[in-house]
TrEMBL record, chain A:
It comes from the Eukaryota. Residues 34-58 are annotated as: Disordered. The keyword rRNA-binding does not apply. Pfam families: PBP. It comes from Trichoderma guizhouense. Component of the mitochondrial ribosome (mitoribosome), a dedicated translation machinery responsible for the synthesis of mitochondrial genome-encoded proteins, including at least some of the essential transmembrane subunits of the mitochondrial respiratory chain. The mitoribosomes are attached to the mitochondrial inner membrane and translation products are cotranslationally integrated into the membrane. This is Large ribosomal subunit protein mL38. Residues 34-45 have a biased composition (Low complexity). It is found in: Mitochondrion. The keyword Ribosomal protein applies. Keywords: Mitochondrion, Ribonucleoprotein, Ribosomal protein. The lineage of its organism: Eukaryota, Fungi, Dikarya, Ascomycota, Pezizomycotina. PANTHER family: PHOSPHATIDYLETHANOLAMINE-BINDING PROTEIN, PHOSPHATIDYLETHANOLAMINE-BINDING PROTEIN 4.
From TrEMBL, chain B:
One of its GO terms (biological process) is translation. This is Large ribosomal subunit protein bL27m. The lineage of its organism: Eukaryota, Fungi, Dikarya, Ascomycota, Pezizomycotina. It holds the Pfam family Ribosomal_L27. Residues 226-267 are annotated as: Disordered. It comes from Trichoderma guizhouense.
UniProtKB/TrEMBL annotation, chain C:
GO terms for biological process: mitochondrial translation. GO terms for molecular function: structural constituent of ribosome. Residues 1-15 have a biased composition (Low complexity). GO terms for cellular component: mitochondrion. It comes from the Eukaryota. InterPro entries: Ribosomal_mL40_fung. This is Uncharacterized protein. Residues 1-41 are annotated as: Disordered.
Length: 450, 267, 159
């Protein structure tokens, strides 16, 4: 800044303040304060000393001369002085009307694109209506071809619906704030993209590394987001949960990414119940419910609230692990029922009341279900397990598992070494050195065996 | 080397330098003898074909045949590199040795679903099973555990037969409580491992300054601060007292010296 | 206070004293003559030297609304570019199809006069004399490279 500029700067600032009325100032209080201040500065050429207005008490818009007061009061001014002046003059402008040229140009381009997409949707809808009203015999390929065509047209319309809104910054903002309406395809699209970017990968990794896929189901590719909450806190997939925490049923957060309501069944399955008699593992059902309605906008699913007669088949059993047994993998499986089909819960109760030996594969096949969601946690023996088992009448708290002894294939070897060689009566004069060695032999003979 | 012999050797070696192919063998040998080296033109006599007789054998290869019974930890195959890969219930050691991890029967097999051209060694629980197991079938696992009732520790009496307690807690203000135990010689002493616990071993800060440079900078700043403070104090004193004796800041050593001097003068 | 210690006993005036080269004045003396002839690539080399070894610029850090505006502009820019590319592609394919159809038409026509089918097409495809008498395209005289120069041949070049 040159010298003359520096001298003229306060003057220029005064002039600028007087003509700084911007058309988009909509904040009533701030604007009023602004006008008042301008009137003050206009009426007296010398500004009156320090009469802070409401704006000057706000750390977001305080002027430099009132900064010290505010700091004394314990509030630090926010941002640069330049920003604070800007905040005074441009309050409460809606986001889409912000006066940035490139931004407004961009909005114009995006709006034009949206118009195009909407027009295309209209076209496709007309096409769909025409095809629907057309008789199947007139369509080349018959009814099956007509269905295929209709399905592909509808898919295209869904795609267009997403593309029409995908460039809207406000939609993006609303989704990021968690205010998106999941009944609209664009928000579902955003949610699915977010899920696929991390949580889906995590879940597939857990499925693979915990061998869920060959052990429980031959194939499992989740398409819905299932999250597990014990006592209001989220549990990462595969985490070891304290038996006291998992004593009460968890709450699920289920987000499906396709439109419409559907009925699902819910299974919580322990895949590692030790079976000492057969030297093997078996499975046990810890919770079984069916006919649970689910839609994209209803995400919360507390297992303790599922109590209806036509829903709950097998109530929650606290997952416990006996002492010394390897960790138990407890999977939460969400299986979608066929559209409109209800599962007979009475039959479920009759079949699976015993819990033990539950096979998810046969359950899936018997009631023609498709697994859509998965989450899991683990349970091990901890200091609370014995109490939990006593409270719920689960036997087995008094036994522990120890690794089975594997005996060597080699024949036993006689003791070797200097002392072992001199144990006989021929070496009686050395007995004081070769007998009763601490840790090796005692009065009854050789103790240490190979 | 003596002169005449040197001349003779030079006389011998000269023709071989000019055209060694024509030179007689005796001359060449003499040349090599003198210079202590062997030319490439002299062929080595078949030593490269002989194998060393005194090597330590590596004893590589299969240590267990197919269908043989093995227990965990048994070595199935020793190799350099991975001619064979660990399959079902097997692991590979640091030197590519393949060990069994379960009690069962050894199987040598290929698994195109896993890898197109790797050979695997596996262990199955039943002798008649074949590897690889069918795709998407449930894994075959064994518990490998035995059931035992949990033995609870017998409650220990608090007071010894002689009527004094086994444990005493010593409480001192400002110190952690100490648990003293009754020893066989009827003395109360703290456990050695508890004494060891008292010493803090982690998170110790041995050096206040990370580098020598930081330390010197800190020292410089400290001195500057001291000097500035002294000056200020002096100024303040001058302002408040006006007159009075201005004490000169001198070191302890210098003060002692001065006192000594004064004493001497007085004498 | 301005006098320095080594000059305490000197009798020369301070203005005549030998000046030590200060770090600010050192590169000034070493700088080359401004009027010296610059190479034709001077500007390119300068830009390269400035930018090639400099660290990457820091990542963009923006607040919420600013980021959203940035995102909007970015999306619009991508959309605009895609539309532009699509339009160019469409125009090119249209032109190519037009030429293809014309050639096809030529190939199918019979004549003129007693000429057989496709005569006109064959004549049209002939490249005789296009590159001068007995000539070949100048591109064939150069090495074929992955990144040819913008200007295939500098005809004005003289040794």
């Amino acid at each position: 800044m040159s010298r003359c500029q520096a001298v003229a700067r306060p003057l220029a600032r005064q002039l600028r303040q007087q003509c700084a009325i911007r058309p988009f100032t909509t904040g009533a209080a701030r604007a009023a304060a602004e006008v008042q201040q301008q009137q003050q500065s206009a009426s007296s050429s010398v500004p009156p000393p320090a009469q802070p207005s409401a704006l000057d008490l706000d750390p977001n818009s305080v002027l430099p001369e009132f900064e010290a007061e505010l700091i004394k009061a314990g509030k630090m001014p926010v941002g640069s002085r330049r920003r604070r002046v800007a905040m005074r003059t441009t309050a409460n402008v809606p986001f889409e009307q912000l006066p940035y040229q490139a931004f407004q140009e961009a909005r114009a381009i995006l709006a034009a694109d949206r118009q195009e997409k909407v027009a295309k949707i209209q076209e496709e809808l007309v096409k769909i209506a025409a095809l629907e009203s057309k008789d199947a015999s007139l369509v080349k390929g018959g009814q099956s071809m007509k269905d295929t065509k209709l399905a592909s047209l509808r898919r295209y319309v869904e795609q267009l619906k997403i593309q029409a809104d995908i460039n809207d910054p406000l939609v993006k903002k609303r989704f990021e704030d968690g205010l998106g309406d999941m009944n609209k395809p664009i928000y579902r699209h955003y949610a699915e993209r977010k899920w696929r970017s991390y949580d889906y990968r995590l879940i597939t990794q857990r499925i693979k590394q915990f061998n869920i896929v060959p052990d429980v189901l031959p194939k499992l590719d989740p398409v819905a987001d299932v999250q597990l909450y014990f006592r209001h806190s989220k549990v990462a997939p595969g985490a070891v949960v304290d038996s006291l925490v998992s004593e009460h049923p968890p709450r699920l957060r289920v987000q499906v990414f396709d439109a419409g309501s559907r009925l699902v069944s819910l299974v919580v399955l322990d895949a590692d119940v030790p079976d000492a008699d057969n030297d093997a593992f078996s499975k046990r059902c810890h919770f079984l419910a069916a006919n649970i309605p689910l839609s994209p906008d209803s995400t919360s699913l507390p297992l303790s609230r599922i109590t209806a007669e036509d829903q709950l088949a097998v109530p929650w059993l606290a997952p416990v692990s006996q002492k010394g047994a390897p960790y138990h993998r407890l999977g939460v499986y969400l299986l979608q029922q066929k559209p409109g089909a209800k599962v007979d819960v009475a039959q479920l109760k009759q079949l699976y009341a015993a819990r033990d030996g539950f096979s998810l594969k046969s359950f899936r096949d018997k009631f023609s279900l498709t697994p859509v969601g998965f989450n899991m946690f683990r349970s091990v023996w901890d200091e609370n397990t014995a109490d939990v088992m006593a409270r719920h009448g689960i036997p087995g708290a008094d036994v522990e598992f120890r690794p089975a002894r594997v005996h060597s294939l080699k024949p036993p070897v006689k003791p070797r070494g200097w002392e072992a060689k001199r144990q006989g009566p021929a070496y009686r004069h050395l007995w004081k050195y070769t007998k009763r060695i601490k840790g090796l032999s005692n009065g009854r003979g050789w103790t240490k065996r190979r | 080397m003596q002169r005449p012999i040197l001349a003779a050797v030079a006389g011998i070696s000269r023709p071989s330098l000019v055209n060694s192919a024509v030179a007689p063998l005796g001359a060449q040998l003499a040349n090599a003898l003198v210079e202590g080296r062997r030319n490439a033109s002299v062929k080595a006599q078949g030593a490269y074909k002989k194998k060393s007789k005194r090597g330590i054998p590596n004893k590589l290869g299969a240590k267990r045949t197919g269908d043989q019974f093995v227990i965990p930890g048994n070595i199935l195959y020793k190799q350099r590199g991975t001619h064979w890969w660990p399959g079902e219930n097997c692991i590979m050691g640091r030197d590519h040795t393949i060990h069994a991890m379960a009690t069962g029967y050894v199987k040598y097999y290929r698994d195109p679903a896993k890898h197109p051209d790797r050979k695997y060694i596996g262990v199955v629980f039943n002798k008649e099973d074949t590897l690889p197991y069918p795709l998407h079938a449930e894994r075959k696992r064994k518990l490998n555990k035995t059931v035992h009732t949990i033995r609870t520790e017998a409650a220990k009496a608090e007071v010894s037969p002689s009527g004094i307690p086994f444990e005493v807690t010593r409480v001192e203000a400002g110190e952690p409580d100490r648990l003293l135990r009754l020893r066989s010689d009827y003395s109360y002493r703290e456990d050695n491992w508890r004494i060891g616990r008292l010493v803090k071993t982690t998170g110790l800060k041995t050096k206040a300054f990370r580098t020598r440079k930081q330390w010197f900078r800190h020292r410089r700043w400290r001195r500057e601060r001291e000097i500035a403070g002294q000056k200020e104090a002096e100024k303040k004193r001058a302002e408040s007292g006006g007159g009075g004796k201005v004490m000169k800041a001198i070191s302890k050593k210098a003060a002692k010296k001065a006192a000594k001097k004064a004493g001497k003068k007085a004498k | 206070m301005t006098t320095t210690t080594p000059r305490l006993f000197s009798t020369t005036s301070s203005s005549l004293a030998r000046k030590l080269p200060t770090p600010a004045s050192a590169p000034k003396a070493a700088r080359r003559n401004r009027s010296a002839p610059k190479s034709e690539n001077f500007n390119r080399i300068r830009t390269l030297r400035r930018n090639m070894f400099s660290p990457a610029p820091p990542p963009l850090r923006m607040a919420r609304q600013r980021y959203l505006r940035h995102w909007t502009i970015h999306r619009a820019w991508m959309l605009f570019r895609r539309k532009q590319h699509e339009a160019i592609e469409k125009e090119r394919s249209r032109m190519h199809a037009g030429m293809y159809n014309a050639c096809e038409e030529l190939r199918k026509t019979v004549g003129p006069g007693s000429r057989g089918e496709g005569y006109l097409y064959r004549v049209a495809m002939e490249k005789k004399g296009v590159y001068g008498l007995e000539g070949v395209p100048i591109e064939y005289a150069r090495f074929q490279t992955d990144s040819p120069a913008k200007e295939p041949w500098n005809h004005d070049w003289k040794r």
